[in-house]
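HUMAN: Forgive my ignorance: could you write out one protein's sequence and backbone structure tokens?

ASSISTANT:
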Amino acid sequence: PGRQRGATNAAGQLLVLKFSRDEEREADLVGLDIAARSGYDPRAGIALWNKMAALNQSGAPIELLSTHPGGSERIEQIDSHMNVLLPLYARSKGVSVNRLPPYRSNVAQR
């Protein structure tokens, strides 16, 4: 009974973490939608997560045990929704998507 209860508790904790990651993914998309509508370039999100990955190469927790999706997953999510985000951003700037300039980070590279 003790081992079974321990396994059940562990499975329950992993399920809670999965729901937390799902909620974080949804929050990321809502935030990106709001930011794009407000005139912030959604392509900056990809640059941000690439920089975060470079800074945190060795200390990142195992995604399965984390309440947040990993940076590479967040980059994939942003990229897969760019077809929706870029038109929102372009509309906020009063131009069509094909008139948007290429993305350039305003942060100096080291």
In short: The CA atoms of residues 76 and 102 lie 19 Å apart. The helical segments are 2-37, 43-55, 71-80, 82-93. Residues 2-98 form one domain.
